[in-house]
Design brief:
The protein is α/β, with parallel strands linked by helices. The chain has eleven helices and 16 strands. The chain has a six-stranded mixed β-sheet, with helices on both faces. Strand 8 and strand 9 form a beta hairpin. The N terminus is likely disordered.
């Protein structure tokens, strides 16, 4: 008996060793150094990751993809942009892939990439030197192959691939399918509040709470476009909703304004003509999410990238507007609303042609009071309760129409 125990103990140790050794590399620090002829970017790491580095135009960007890492950065890191780098952002880009995006102030070239092994208390360092180059050289470099550490990185999946539509079950589900879209994510943080609150964290927390409340009723099937801190392209969010045969698409966001005064929730539906200048500006900002995350759209044509507004059927627009009106009524019972609460703009994420869709701005992270509320689980639950009541009313109304 003792021999058998020793055998199973040894086997357990063997099974656990790969798990212990499979910890992700950690990024401990990101630094920018200024030199007369270059800007140096240094990543301090716990161990060497595999990497892929390339540039993208319109706007100028340098993208550093790595096998998934643990970001262990302290407050104030990564630093503010300096030298040839205007800004930095980082996060999970796809399953197994972490991304650091450097917004460049102009056309830049990758002068040097060097991976320095750690020694003693000195961490492993990934060093990237950037230099100013003519526009023609930047375009040539952007069209070339990325700089890679291993052949595996050349074929790295650069974007999230939505699941294919599942075969219809027999008998098919009669429950309405609610698709909840947590705005932003991963390398794209969205708006950032006065206390450092990120839009991506607020929307994900609220999406999970709304899913919980909807599923507790037993009346709905719920699909989240993301249930973790990962980047998903705008067009892929729509693809997920359509693959799930969604009946209603709710995209959750938190706004930001250059002034700290505006506060309150608002609801947007799709329109080619924005209801006001602020709505147009917000849609333009949100539609740049793919660029912020370092997605290359240069090979896509307008039909693919824009999913033209005129594809949205008139009936779908009417359903969206009807649901928006119900939602505004319910939100107004519990939370503060922005004036002219129902707004219209050309949000790319609302352009599914056959799914009623709304975008909910849950409040302003640039306003200290709204930010404090959105950080509160109780307040997010209250917002979700209003959404649940409006969803119940929307499908009850549709059922009444079907029976009449």
């Amino acid at each position: 008996m003792f021999g058998i125990r020793r055998f199973w103990a040894a086997l357990l140790i063997l099974l656990l060793v790969p798990i212990v050794g499979a910890a992700k590399p950690a990024v401990i620090n990101v630094r920018l150094g200024l030199h007369p002829d270059k800007t140096r970017v240094v990543l301090d790491l716990s161990e060497a990751p595999e990497y892929r580095i390339f540039t993208l135009p319109d706007p100028y960007r340098v993208v550093i993809d790595m096998t998934e890492v643990d970001w262990q950065l302290s407050a104030g890191n990564p630093p503010e942009g300096r030298g040839l780098v205007a800004a930095l952002r980082y996060g999970l880009f796809a399953v197994g892939t972490s991304r650091l995006v450097l917004d460049a102030k102009g056309p830049v070239g990758i002068k040097l990439v060097d991976l320095l092994p750690g020694k003693g208390s000195t961490p492993t360092r990934l060093v990237i030197d950037l230099e100013s180059v003519p526009e023609s050289e930047f375009i040539r470099q952007s069209q070339g192959a990325p700089l890679i550490s291993t052949p595996m990185m050349a074929s790295l999946t650069s974007t999230f691939v939505p699941p294919p539509p599942k075969p219809m079950q027999s008998p098919p589900s009669t429950k309405p399918v609610i698709v909840i879209d947590a705005g932003h994510g991963g390398v794209d943080p969205g708006a950032i509040g006065t206390r450092g609150t990120t839009e991506k964290s607020i929307t994900l927390a609220m999406a999970k709470e709304l899913r919980r409340q909807l599923e507790e009723t037993g009346r709905y099937k719920v699909v989240l476009t993301r249930d973790t801190d990962i980047f998903i392209r705008l067009r892929d969010r729509i693809a997920i909703a359509r693959a799930a045969h969604g009946d209603l698409f709710v995209s959750l966001h938190a706004d930001s304004h250059e002034s700290s005064e505006p506060r309150g929730a608002s609801v947007y539906t799709l329109s080619e003509t924005a209801s006001d200048a602020e709505a147009a500006a917000l849609a333009a900002k949100e539609n740049k999410a793919d660029l912020i995350a370092g997605v290359d759209l240069s090979a896509e044509n307008n039909i693919v990238t824009n999913i033209l507004i005129d594809l949205a059927q008139r009936e779908t627009k009417n359903l969206s507007a009807h649901f928006a009106a119900m939602l505004i009524d319910e939100l107004g019972r519990d939370v503060r609303l922005l004036r002219n609460t129902h707004r219209f703009a050309g949000f790319a994420v609302l352009k599914a042609p056959d799914i009623a869709s709304v975008l909910v701005e849950t409040g302003y992270l640039s306003n200290p009071k709204d930010e404090a509320l959105l950080r509160s689980a109780d307040h997010r639950a209250k917002l979700c309760e209003a959404l649940l009541r409006s969803i119940d009313s929307f499908f009850a109304w549709q059922e009444t129409l079907r029976r009449s």
